[in-house]
Amino acid sequence: MTIPLERLPTLPDLSLDAFWMPFTANRQFKQAPRLLIAAAGMYYTSIDRRQILDGTAGLWCVNAGHCRQEIATAIAQQAATLDFAPTFQMGHPGPFQVAERLKAITPEPLNHVFFANSGSEAVDTALKIALAYHRLRGEGSRQRLIGRERGYHGVGFGGISVGGIAPNRKFFGSLLPGVDHLPHTHNLAHNAFSRGQPAWGAHLADELERLVMLHDASTIAAVIVEPVAGSTGVLIPPQGYLERLRTICDRHGILLIFDEVITGFGRLGTPFASQYFGVTPDLITVAKGLTNGAVPMGAVLVRDDIYNTFMQGAPGQIEFFHGYTYSGHPLACAAALATLTLYEQENLFARAAALAPYWQEAVHRLRGLPHVIDIRNLGLVAGIELAPRDGQVGVRGYDALCRCFDTGLLIRVTGDIIALSPPLILERTHIDQMIDILGRVLRELS
Q1: DSSP state at residue 126
Q2: Res 263 pLDDT > 70
Q3: pLDDT, tens digit (0-9, with 9 covering 90-100), for 147-183
């Protein structure tokens, strides 16, 4: 049962002072707030009762569209039946059911699932699994973690250590010791306006060999990358790049972790990006689309032999001293089961794959508009990079975000890069509407 619009808050009803907003210029926002009060399908409703087309699936997460009744009903029924149950030396059916459903769509042999509550927690969990795995195998010297420049792996200390976005790191000290980074793959001189995977850049994976020579393979536990880097501004992997990373990791006994918090659950037209690229990592982190954004939930998908390495020792011994109070929370499990059912029943992953060519042609129509210096796309995701204003990096992108919102479109910006990642239920008419609004805004930008 939805709340009638007339009963929802208006701006004068709200005090904006107490909430310290995440990843937001708080003082700027509170002078001209952009507030959303309702959603359905492809659209949000703003606090001034306008319809806002969702070009970002919320925050890369609402893949099945907003306020799906099937998910809402499942959550409500679960809350009225079993609101909470511990998963420490105890259990309830939900996480076992979700794990089996995930097992059915993950690449072999990633057949085991450890639950968390966010992508950040999933990443820190995966890093701990990697370190503990090598220790159990008698290679405790493998403690070094390798991330990538411009990578985003959440905001835990592990995630920001292997991450490579400078503002996320610079205020928090030396972070985890022994972390190194691969170079990012973004190069406008070679790859501007690529459609799909760019042809140039596979050789950048060979930088991992340099790090192996520098540190010695016996010290390196894992490499973690996003198959498609999302939060930094949609960076598409060059052809052959991920394949080279996999080969090098295999050569030196290094675990490969794919952070699929954004690419998981159909964003590229397959359940996971690893299947799209034909490259199977050792662990995959997921969140966001797992519950359609309705209840926080994250997970790590783990290769069989890694899991089995932990399942040794005395039968009564705890194998892995890690977990969260809300791991496998009943409401999150209910949301995940309903979401996975919707994906299957509505064939949303295949739908995304079928729409991808039309999406590609549409977003590349923006080429030649003022300030556009690159467009890149894969699946149902796109990045439109704008030239920054002199001495004002990010200002033009923020201006585009505000103008789009005022015109009826929600976009995401990272600096001067616009990211689009719509719900997978969109129609061609929605794509046309997005590109029309964005084109008008770009023509008006100074």
Answers
A1: H
A2: yes
A3: 999 999 999 999 999 999 999 999 999 899 999 999 9
Contact between 165 and 151 (Cβ < 8 Å): yes
Residues in the chain: 446
User: Across all residues in the chain, what is the average pLDDT?
Assistant: 97
Closest CA to 241 of 217, 258, 218, 263: 258
| 77 CB-near residues (< 8 Å, 6+ apart) | 334
Question: In the prediction, which pLDDT does 8 show?
Answer: 86
Q: Which residues contact 64 (CB under 8 A, 6 or more apart)?
A: 71, 292, 339, 342, 343, 346, 348, 423, 424, 425
DSSP secondary structure letters along 176-224:
STTEEEEPP---HHHHTT-SSS-SS-GGGGGHHHHHHHHH-GGGEEEEE
- Give the model's pLDDT for residue 4: 85
Can you tell me the distance from the alpha carbon of 319 to that of 304, in angstroms, rounded to the nearest whole number? 15
Indicate the residue type of 423.
Answer: P
pLDDT score recorded for residue 215: 98
pTM of the model: 0.97
Q: Where are the beta strands (DSSP E) in 304-410?
A: 372-378, 381-386, 409-410
From residue 388, alpha-carbon distances to 44, 364, 413 in Å are 29, 20, 13
Tokens linked to 252 = 């030196």
Q: Which uninterrupted H or E stretch holds 246? A: helix 241-252
Question: Any idea which of 8-22, 68-82, 274-288 has the lowest mean pLDDT?
Answer: 8-22
Q: Please report the pLDDT score of residue 12 as a whole number.
A: 85
With the C-alpha atoms ordered 5, 10, 14, 16, is the resulting torsion angle positive or negative? positive
Question: Are 272 and 260 a contacting pair, CB within 8 Å?
Answer: yes
Tell me what pLDDT residue 313 has: 85
Residue 418's pLDDT band, with cuts at 50, 70 and 90, is very high
Tell me the C-alpha to C-alpha distance, in Å, between residue 323 and each of 110, 116, 371.
Answer: 19, 7, 47
In the chain, what is the straight-line distance between the N-terminal and C-terminal CA atoms, in Å? 45
Give the residue among 103, 90, 1, 122 at the shortest CA–CA distance from 330.
90
* Token pair 């609004």: residue: 437
Helix (H) or strand (E) holding 51: strand 51-54
